[in-house]
Amino acid sequence: MQIYEALKKDHEEVKQLLNQLLSLPDNDEKQHGPLIAKIRDALIPHSRAEEAVFYNSFRLIDASKKLGMHGYSEHLAAESLLRTLQVKGKIDADWKVTARELKAALEHHIAEEESEMFTAGRALFTNEEADAMGEAFEKMKPEIKEEGLMGTTIDMLKNMMPPRFIETFVSTARNIRF
Ligand SMILES: [Fe+2]
Ligand SMILES: [Fe+2]
What we know:
Layout: H1 3-22, H2 32-59, H3 65-91, H4 95-124, H5 127-145, H6 149-160, H7 163-173
Helix pairs in contact: 1-2, 1-4, 1-5, 2-3, 2-5, 2-6, 3-4
């Protein structure tokens, strides 16, 4: 499967889960907690693998560097909303307000990815490269799903870093206590 289809399939799943979450009644008696966890499990592995496989392929090409980096800032913003949603969901605060913000942020992000990045990708990468990216993307996701917040945060920083710093960063980060 080419990377574009693999990404799109996940995008549809996340959008559907968010719609499901927002359609819950306000007194949903704890259905929202498991659904928020499901959104996390779909979104975080998707984003980390997408950065490592797709965004960083753009970063290797000088003229397309910005395209890859823009996505990172939107991932950070969406994940900060997701964390707020996870906490609000647990204490039953007004979690729907944050769920709506997350939905809007992700819909914007996904639309941009599927238009600008997919178009640029199709012009830059061969079909074989797109197939290889799709395969690598699917392979990475299950491992990321099992990681906690600390692990996925280190992974994001690692993905964003210039390759020459990665090794030192990872060995240092493992020894930091947060
Ligand atoms: Fe995506
Ligand atoms: Fe993304």
